[in-house]
Amino acid sequence: MNKIVLENTRDVPLTTDLLAFMQASYSALEKLAAIGGDNFIVSGCTVSGSTATSGWMVLKGKLVPFKGGSIQTNVRIITTENVYPVGAGSETEIVYTAEFGTSSDTSENVPWADITRGKVNSNIDRLDALENLEWVQLPSVSTADYTADASNAYISKTASGEIRFKGTIVINRDAAVPLVQATIIPESYRPSVNKIVPLVQGTDELDMGNAEAFINPTSGSLVVMGGSYTIHLDNISYYL
């Protein structure tokens, strides 16, 4: 990308030519949007029922903030020009935004159905597919003293024998239990020997912070310290 050399330079005039050069230089970064395609969601824009939240999109190659609302057929690009007097001349600022609706200028409309999630995120999913990763949901555990909700916890195995985890397990303790069984590892994913793995725990009433979990190779039990907190599994992996 082009740049202006300002080091060891005195009395650099702030001219329109200089500003135009700067604008052209950082505008080149927008070309990276081609990685995801012409029209896609960068962040946010989460659908819930008949509405979508605010976020960021690339529409017709432009990175624009999107104002959420009730889902309609089209998303329109709004171009706003603000003109300010400057001395004997004027300054014009052009701002691009997007929202649901249909513009009279059809070139500013993009069908909502044509706007997809970014290809970068899709490519990450494809990498999982290339590794033949099949994510298996881990079972939840419920006893009279505590519950361990593993509805958002998954395990997989790569072709090289690496076991990976993702998601969270929510522990809710109803009694003073020093150790709890957070989930049960399926037999084909269990280590051959006792395994201790690091955990990242959300803050609970004891502010437990980081801790460890024990995996029993015979029963498959993932045993953790008792408490009421959330276990984050994304950092756990081991080889068989």
The SSE order reads HEEEEEEEEEEHEEEEEEEEEE
Mean pLDDT: 82
Shape: elongated
Alpha-carbon distance between the two ends? 46 Å
Strand content: over 45%
Total domains, how many? 2
Helix residue percentage: 10-25%
**Rg for CA atoms:** 26 Å
- Structure class: mainly beta
**Sheet of most strands:** 10 strands, antiparallel
Counted beta strands: 20
Uncertain stretches of 5 or more adjacent residues: 202-209
Quickly count the helices: 2
Task: Characterise this structure.
There is one protein chain. The protein is mainly beta. The protein has two domains: 16-124, no CATH class; 136-239. The chain is built from two helices and 20 strands. Strands 11, 12, 13, 14, 15, 16, 17, 18, 19 and 20 form a ten-stranded antiparallel beta sheet that branches. Strands 9-7-8-5-4-1-10 form a seven-stranded mixed beta sheet. It starts with 15 loop residues before the first helix and ends with a strand.
